[in-house]
Specification:
It comes from Klebsiella pneumoniae. Pfam families: PLDc_2. InterPro entries: PLD-like_dom. Helices cover 35% and strands 25% of the residues. The chain has 605 residues and is α+β, with helices and mostly antiparallel strands. The protein has 4 domains: 161 residues, no CATH class; 69 residues, Orthogonal Bundle (Arc Repressor Mutant, subunit A), CATH 1.10.10; 167 residues, 2-Layer Sandwich (Endonuclease, Chain A); 144 residues, Endonuclease Chain A (Endonuclease, Chain A), CATH 3.30.870. α2 crosses α3, α8 packs parallel to α9 and α11 runs antiparallel to α12. The model has no long low-confidence stretch (mean pLDDT 91).
């Protein structure tokens, strides 16, 4: 007999008023003019001469580009130049410019996947979609006639999402988001849970739902199986809704991006990091974002003039930091001094007339991640991520970072940065909105051109993904493992040391190298010495890298795989906010050997 089961699925529900745009396409000449200006600031005379058009006609064509917010006029060396805004530099890369129209206001609704945090558009008018959302009361009322064949997914979820995902889902094909008009935006939608009713037939076909994630489909089908098993042994006419065990939201895993090996650059050692910071500032063309967990006033002073120079050539600059407010009185004073310094620098920036170009954001992100986002060629962006506190380092310790030049990786990191910039409030601000828009623009730009078909894999990993990667690597390793951590404590025993011991016990021919700088937490020097001797007795190669102090944090295996990260592998927990730590997982032949060689240049065997 045919049997249909039903599963009640919770979704976060959001509704905002958006400023949108839609109109006729731009012409090819406007596209060419914007492309010229995106490459270098231009005078109207230069553009007229280059395009072989009358100067007056060129100016008339530039005016709509200015109204669209893509170009602006700036005085440079006593002449007036047209320069692109940050948004203009982005759209100059599109095959077709976004349509030019007067923005209009619309309220749009969306749902948040409880497992993956993905967004789905929701239209209140039933005829536009094949599913409906209900309140808790209404869903119970709707299922009262078949409760024995019904189950409710009890999902423990934060129901949070990112602004860029919202932007992507709420627009029609011929629209783009200009802004969210609501004053307060909380991307945690757990306060407004709605429910959809999934119907599952004998063949496992699911109806009554949007195009949901594979993870959510899997949970629905698992629950369908449970309902059918219960129906075989229970009188379903007397049964109530089956709830079952709690389900935790899945760790949001970003996709692996396939790129070419030339798009990956390993940065190792103090001098390479110092040069990378200064080159990123000096060579940035339109965008520069620096996130440093800690801030040192002397380090800021070292780069401040370079930052001002970059802002004066129209680079949009945001400086963020992640330090949480310390409880110790002596550290609290230093923390407050940094905030006061930010206020002082922002005042100087205002006096120089550059407040729209550069800002030191005083509210910390509460993240231990360290990264730089910039473009050395207009519109070709790079993301650098690793162990270096760019604005507190004196560049006298061994660090390891990786620089990836790829729009999708940069879009992924910028999306994360949008989340981090909300800080502890979880409320969207001007920066988080702008970064979400930037990220969405990069995703859109990639979608209209061919993605790379390279054989190098790069993936951004979040805090909770780190320790599972170690376990996975220990299950497949064939030749060698190398792990480097600034600190070592008891916290690293179960997630790191124990799996490594298991590998060595299984195959003594696998080489395992561990490097660290110092002990941390409750682990005393004598206990660290005992741990070192114990591991050496098992065949581990141990390096105490304290001259100079190692600050690098990486994990490599079989020479072709590496995680370059901000996480102290041997002393830190991966719990807490999902983006409290960030790393690159890179698969590239020889990259493990490369980092090992650079390490041993600093610390000879």
């Amino acid at each position: 007999m045919s049997l249909t089961t039903y599963v009640i699925v919770p979704f976060g529900y959001g509704m905002h008023r958006f400023s949108l745009a839609k109109a006729k396409p731009w012409g090819p000449i406007e596209k060419i003019l914007l492309g010229y200006i995106a490459k270098t600031p231009c005078t109207s005379t230069f553009l007229a001469k280059t395009s072989n058009l009358p100067r007056q006609l060129v100016v008339e064509m530039l005016i709509p580009l200015m109204k669209a917010g893509w170009i602006e006029i700036k005085p440079i060396n006593d002449e007036y130049f047209f320069v692109t805004t940050n948004r203009g530099a982005e759209v100059a890369l599109y095959e077709e410019l976004p349509t030019d129209s007067i923005p209009y206001s619309r309220v749009r609704s969306f749902m948040v996947d409880p497992l993956t945090r993905e967004c789905y558009r929701y239209e209140k008018r039933k005829k536009k979609q094949s599913f409906q959302l209900y309140s808790k009361h209404n869903i119970l009322d709707a299922t009262k006639s078949f409760r024995g064949l019904c189950s409710e997914l009890n999902i423990i979820s934060s129901y949070t999402t990112t602004l860029s995902r919202i932007y992507e889902k709420i627009t029609n094909y011929d629209e783009e988001v200009i802004d969210i008009e609501d004053d307060i935006i909380d991307t945690n939608y757990s306060k407004n849970i709605h429910f959809a009713l999934a119907a599952i037939d004998d063949m496992g076909n699911i109806t009554g739902m949007p195009e949901i994630s594979d993870e959510l489909k899997c949970e629905i089908l698992k629950r369908d199986k449970k309902i059918r098993e219960r129906a075989e042994i229970l009188d379903i006419s007397k049964s109530d809704i089956y709830v079952g065990e709690n389900i935790n939201e899945t760790v949001k895993t970003l996709p692996k991006r396939l790129i070419n090996k030339e798009q990956v650059r390993l940065i190792a050692g103090p001098e390479e990091h110092r040069m990378h910071l200064f080159n990123s500032i000096i060579n940035a063309k339109s965008r520069l974002i620096i996130h440093s967990t800690f801030i040192n006033e002397e380090c800021i002073a070292d780069v401040f003039d370079n930052l001002i120079d970059a802002a004066q050539r129209s680079v949009q600059i945001d400086i963020l930091w992640g330090q949480t407010e310390p409880e110790e009185q002596n550290k609290l004073e230093s923390y407050k001094n940094v905030i006061a310094k930010f206020d002082e620098l922002n005042n100087k920036i205002v006096q120089k007339g550059l407040s729209t170009q550069i800002k030191f954001h005083r509210a910390p992100t509460l993240s231990h991640a360290k990264f730089i986002i910039h473009d050395e060629i207009q519109g070709i962006y790079s993301a650098t991520l690793g162990s270096c506190n760019w604005l507190s380092s004196r560049f006298n310790r061994f660090e390891v970072s990786a620089c990836i030049t790829d729009d999708l990786i940069v879009a992924d990191l910028t999306d994360i940065c949008s989340h981090l910039s909300m800080g502890g409030t979880g409320l969207a601000n001007n920066l988080s909105r702008e970064l979400a828009f930037f990220s969405a623009s990069l995703y859109k730009n990639v979608s209209i051109r061919k993605e790379s078909d390279g054989n190098t894999s790069v993936q951004i990993i979040s805090a909770p993904e780190h320790h599972p990667i170690v376990k996975q690597a220990c299950n497949v390793v064939k030749n060698n493992i190398f792990i480097c951590s600034h600190r070592v404590s008891y916290a690293g025993d179960r997630p790191i040391i124990l799996p490594l011991k298991t590998v060595k016990a299984y195959d003594k021919n696998i080489s395992i190298d561990i490097a660290y700088g110092r002990s941390s937490g409750d682990l005393k020097s004598a206990e660290l010495k005992e741990l070192k001797q114990n591991l050496q007795s098992l065949g581990f190669n141990i390096t105490t890298a304290d001259n100079p102090q190692v600050h690098a944090k990486f994990f490599s295996w079989d020479n072709n795989n590496i995680v370059v990260t901000s996480l102290n592998w041997l002393s830190s927990s991966s719990k807490g906010d999902i983006y409290n730590e960030l790393g690159f997982l890179i698969t590239l032949p020889g990259i493990g050997n490369e980092v090992k060689e650079k390490f041993h240049e600093m610390y000879p065997e």
